[in-house]
Amino acid sequence: MELDLVIVGGGPAGLTAGIYASSRKISCMVLEAGDPGGQLTNIYPDKAIENYPGLVVTEAKELVNLLISHAQAVGCGLHTHERVLRIKDLEDGRLFLESDKDEYTAKAVIVAIGAGLYKPKRLGAKGEVEFEGRGVAYTLPSRDDIRGKRIIFIGGGNSALEMALLACEVAEVCVVHRRDKFRADNVYVERIAASGVDTYMSAEVEEIKGDDQVRSVVLKMGDPPVSKEVEADLVVINIGFTPDTSDLEHWGLNLDDGLITVDTEMRTSRRGVFACGDIVTYNGKFKQIITGCGEAATAANSAYKFIIKPYWA
Questions:
Q1: Of 27, 56, 87, 96, which has the maximum CB count within 10 A?
Q2: How far is CA 131 from CA 7, 171, 181, 275, in A?
Q3: pLDDT-derived band at 278, boundaries 50, 70, 90
Q4: Domain encompassing residue 288
Q5: Of 292, 267, 299, 295, whose CA–CA distance to 278 is shortest?
């Protein structure tokens, strides 16, 4: 398939780049290795987004649906579950992209893969692997699936507390954190305190127990340590995710600590390749949805100037 622009990654930044590029009437396709929306869809679909201008509070999946609808309305193509494997230079100056499903030629490319594909970090506790999918999870199931259940959340960051706050509306919830203070933002810590959710601080998971399903969790707490067994139907582990950005190693881009270096126009070290979103780094980088979308607008404009070469570029 021949295109003006291929955008690798369908999170908020990639979709925004598609909106801006397609609005300039250049042919554009977004290729997403998983479901569109990036980590908003794959990790935090029910997360409340409270800092996106114009939307006082919205769920992550709702914001993603708005971005997808907007991109498609202006003519941007979107292929999901298609992973780009290689990006090669052609003799005529165009770029050749090979995915696990198809091949593309493009005049420019925007890389917007966020932090790549995600693998959840594991606790390493006894029973964790054994009960995965049978009461051990790394993302929050739908509200209907957790209604009335006893849920233990493991973690002390924003996402763990946000999940606990969502779940406590329909389930019996407690939070376990290995330190004496949460590392989440104060707004979430205050909400947890006001919610009545039980918290176990300076506690570690010793064992996850059950039969055909999780039934309880054994915690080790205090100094000297004592064990406490807490009944549970579901254990949600949220202690972080390990990004898989291995594809970048084959794309010939300059990296700094695993992230793509860009200039103020979101140009990478490779001619015709631009980047935006969580995967890029520069002095003063601030990782937020809105800043990633702003970078995407810049990347799309830079790609447009590279492709069309207007008189004012």
A1: 87
A2: 38, 20, 28, 39
A3: very high
A4: 2-118+241-308
A5: 292
Domain membership flag for residue 9:
yes
DSSP 8-state symbol, 142: -
Indicate whether 149 belongs to any domain.
yes
pLDDT tens, 15-68?
999 999 999 999 999 999 988 998 787 766 767 788 899 999 898 889 999 999
DSSP symbols for 145-164: HHTT-EEEEE--SHHHHHHH
Same domain, 89 and 143: no
Residue of 269, 258, 299 lying closest to 89 (CA atoms) = 269
pLDDT above 70 coverage of the chain, percent: 97
Q: How far apart are CA 123 and CA 165, in angstroms?
A: 22
Q: Which residues sit opposite 280 in a β-bridge? A: 260
pTM over 0.85: no
Domain match, 79 and 104 both: yes
